[in-house]
Amino acid sequence: MTNLTIRLRQAMQPWRTAPAWRIAFSGGLDSSVLLHLLADWAEHEELPPLSAIHVHHGLQPAADAWPEHCAQVCARLDIPLDIVRAQVAPGASLEQAARRARYAAFAERLGPGEILLGAQHRDDQAETLLFRLLRGAGVRGLAAMPGSRSLGCGTLLRPLLGCSRAELHAYAQNRGLAWVEDPSNADERFSRNFLRRQVMPLLAERWPQLAASLSRSAGHLGEAQQLLEELAEMDLLAARGVCALPWLPLPSLDVSAVAALSDARQRNLLRHWLALLSRMPDSDHWAGWYDLRDAAADATPIWKLADGELRRAEGRLWWLSGEWLRPPQPLDLPCGALGEPVELPGNGCVHLAGELPRARWHLRYRRGGESLLLPGRGHRDLKRLLNEWRVPAFVRPRLPLLFDGGELVAVANLTQAPGMAASGVRLHWSPPIGDRGLSW
C-alpha cells in the first residue's frame, strides 16, 4: 500500500458512512489518480456507492473530446458517470466564471449528505495561497482551500491536499494511466498558470520545500480563521437582539450592539454575517459601513454591496435583496373574502383570517394622509402610528392596507379598526424574503 493510498484512506475515514461518494472528474491527471485510487479501494472493501461527475464547459475545441474519454475510463472501472454541460456566464474573469458554473453544477447534483471529492493537492494549495496573497486577501482568503466545506445539500471534500503533484504523477505513471491535458493550462496570460509555470519553479530553486511550507502556512491561517469565526458567532449572538417586528423575515442586527465593538470586531462580525448573503467588499469599500454606522439618527443611509444592500432603520441594520430592491407595483385590488393567500406582485402575499361583511373592500398601499380609528384613541394619523410601531421606512410603502370605500380599516400584521377587531377578521401579510443568499 503506497503512502498516497494510506493518506487518502485516513482522510476519507470519517466519511465512510456517507450515502454516496461522487468524484469531480475532469479527466486530467489529478482527478484520474483520485478516481483510480477509489476504484481500487472499492475492490477490497465496502465503500459508499461511487460515481463521477464530469462538467463540460465547451470553452475550447479540445474539450469536446473529454466527455468521451471520461466515459471510457469510468466504463472500464465500472463507475457510473454523469456528464453535465454547463453554461459559463460572460464576465471579466473567464476562470472565475467557469469555476462558478462548475460548482453550481456539482451543488445541484449532490443529494443530502453526499460527498463530492475534489482532487486538489498540496501544490494547488500553495499556488492558491500565493495567488491570493498577491491580490491582498485577508485571513479567510489566505487560508486557501479548506479540506472540507458544505456544498449544496452535501459536502465538498479534498482528501489529497496533503499530497504533492509529484506523488500523483508518479502514481499515474506507475499504473500506466491515461489522462487529458488542458491546453489552457499552458496559457500564461492566466495568472494561475503564470505562477505555476514561471514563479513557483523559480522560488522552489531557492526554497525546495516551498509548496509544503506554503501549504503549512495555509493550515495555520485556516486555524486563525476558525478562531475569528468563533469570535464572530459570539458577537453575532449578542448583536441579533430582539426585533420588534417578528413577522418581518429579513436578516437584521442591533446597530448599538455592533457599534459597541472595536472596528476590527465590527468588520469581522459583518464579514461573517454577510458571507452567505453577498460577495464581500474590498478594503476600500468598507468606508460605506462607517458612513452607515455614523450617520445621524434621522438619516436613512444605505451601504450597497454586490448582491444587495444594508440599511439602518429603527435602531437595526437590515439586509435587503431581491424584490426588496425594487418598488412594488401599484395596488388597488377589490376583494371580498381572502381566505386563500393572494400574491402581490413583487411583494409577497396577503390573506384574511375571518369573513368580511358586505362592503366596498379594497386592498391598497399608502398614498399619504391616511388615518385609522383606534379603540379609546379616536382617529390617528397612519404616519404617526407607523412611527410608534417602529416600522422601518422601507417597509411602509409595502404594507397592505384594507379600505372600506375610502376609510382605512386595517393595517396588515399590525392593527385594525374596532369594527374589524370585533368581527375577528385579521389581515395577514407575508412579506417577500429576498434572495436566499449564496449557495457555494
From TrEMBL:
Q: Which Pfam families match?
A: ATP_bind_3, TilS, TilS_C
Q: Which InterPro entries match?
A: Lysidine-tRNA-synth_C, Rossmann-like_a/b/a_fold, TilS/TtcA_N, tRNA_Ile_lys_synt, tRNA_Ile_lys_synt_N, tRNA_Ile_lys_synt_subst-bd
Its Gene Ontology molecular function terms?
Answer: tRNA(Ile)-lysidine synthase activity
Q: Which CDD domains match?
A: TilS_N (cd01992)
Do you know which SMART domains this protein is assigned to? Answer: TilS_C
In its keyword annotation, does this UniProt entry include Transferase?
no
Reaction catalyzed: cytidine(34) in tRNA(Ile2) + L-lysine + ATP = lysidine(34) in tRNA(Ile2) + AMP + diphosphate + H(+)
Residues involved in ATP binding: 26-31
Q: Which Gene3D superfamilies does the record associate with it?
A: 1.20.59.20, HUPs (3.40.50.620)
Q: What is known of its domains?
A: The N-terminal region contains the highly conserved SGGXDS motif, predicted to be a P-loop motif involved in ATP binding.
Q: What does this protein do?
A: Ligates lysine onto the cytidine present at position 34 of the AUA codon-specific tRNA(Ile) that contains the anticodon CAU, in an ATP-dependent manner. Cytidine is converted to lysidine, thus changing the amino acid specificity of the tRNA from methionine to isoleucine.
**Name of this protein:** tRNA(Ile)-lysidine synthase
Query: What organism does this protein naturally occur in?
Result: Ectopseudomonas hydrolytica
